[in-house]
Amino acid sequence: MSQGRTDDDELFATSIRTWLADNLTGEFAKLRGLGGPGREHEGYDERLAWDRHLAAAGWTCLGWPTEYGGRAATLEQQVIFHEEYARANAPARVSHIGEELLGPTLIAFGTEEQKQRFLPGIKNVTELWCQGYSEPGAGSDLASVSTAARLDGDRWSINGQKVWTSLAHVADWCFVVARTEPGSVRHKGLSYLLVPMKQPGIAVRPIIQLTGTSEFNEVFFDDAHTDADLVVGGIGEGWRIAMGTLTFERGVSTLGQQIGFARELDGIAELAERNGAAQNPLIRAKLTRAAMGLRVMRAHALRTMDSADSSGGAASVAKLFWANWHRGLGELAMEVLGAQSLVADGAVENGGLQELQRLYLFTRADTIYGGSNEIQRNIIAERVLGLPREARP
């Protein structure tokens, strides 16, 4: 990406900045800073209304082609939007799985009928989505999926279990990777199905996290059904389509994520100055290293955002970097809090946790979800460096 903005980019930045200032007022003013990983329960209904307000003003799906309701915004403009949105401390989006993952996947791989059926609901935030990838025996190793789907006339019959399914309890639809070829193994025989969640054959069970909240879920499929034509990319193409979705997952929104990281770091640094922790040279050095790491993270993201890297190497490096950095930030927060970190005396709705305690507990999962550290290192070693494949059973 270019290091300088064009006049059009500056106008775009001013436009979104002004709109956010004018609209994060009144009933929406109280939503600032709410939601996000580990905090999806905060103001959910109000944040859904906010998302629909964004959609009505044309601020959703910016990078989509205009024929599907987007603005065909450039990569620079999409980065500008996410960064300005984060700087405004606007609430976390509830529709991001549909907008940032499934929508681009359908545009890239779906049939025209699928695009016409599903993209408007994503664009207008009238249909919400969840991601049916991980299973009890197939976490980051997606090729071990065992959930099975059998074509029965004009519909698929699905049986199996998914786990760690974010926001499944509020989703209308789920994109499910299932094994559609009996006896197939690993990457072969998988298909990418679009499955309605509101049906008798699906049960959702919340998973209570360390933070006391439950945005993750187990999802059970017991002869659940979906239409025969709701397979993306063709039968047996599930691995290729799923990998395409994961590529979209690490897109421009990560720049906005880093603004949030910077806000967390600033808060920890300010606390260190107030309570005297900054006088400890070790803590001061860690704060400095954290600030340096954040700059490196941004530079890497900008450098690789529009690269032609198809190996997954750049995305894996980025995931390793931010996950370890953020987990370390949670640990640093506890050091800065000192003895106070051991006392749960925060808001009741957060299980009595102080904000930094919640940050620490949830960031323990950063190096696991979205592809564990071990999986990312395998990708880099095998696909980028060409090292021998790890032995597998």
Question: How would you portray this structure in words?
Answer:
One of its GO terms (cellular component) is plasma membrane. Pfam families: Acyl-CoA_dh_1, Acyl-CoA_dh_M, Acyl-CoA_dh_N. This is Acyl-CoA dehydrogenase family protein. Its cofactor is FAD. Keywords: FAD, Flavoprotein, Oxidoreductase. The chain is built from eleven helices and seven strands. The protein has about 400 residues and is of the alpha+beta class. It folds into three domains: about 5-95, no CATH class; about 130-235, Butyryl-CoA Dehydrogenase, subunit A, domain 2, CATH 2.40.110; about 250-385, Butyryl-CoA Dehydrogenase, subunit A, domain 3, CATH 1.20.140. The strands form two sheets. Strands 2-3-7-6 form a four-stranded antiparallel beta sheet, with no helix packed on it. Helix 1 packs parallel to helix 3 (about 75-85). The longest helix has 25 residues, at about 315-335. The two termini are about 40 Å apart. The mean pLDDT is about 90.
Quick recap of the structure?
Helix content is 44%, strand content 12%.
SSE topology sketch:
Layout: H1 7-23, H2 44-56, H3 75-87, H4 96-109, H5 112-123, E1 129-132, E2 148-152, E3 155-162, E4 173-179, E5 190-196, E6 202-206, E7 217-227, H6 238-249, H7 253-275, H8 281-304, H9 313-337, H10 355-363, H11 373-384
Helix pairs in contact: 1-3, 3-7, 4-5, 4-6, 7-8, 7-9, 8-9, 9-10, 9-11
Domain Acyl-CoA dehydrogenase/oxidase C-terminal: 236-385
Family: Belongs to the acyl-CoA dehydrogenase family.
Cofactor: FAD
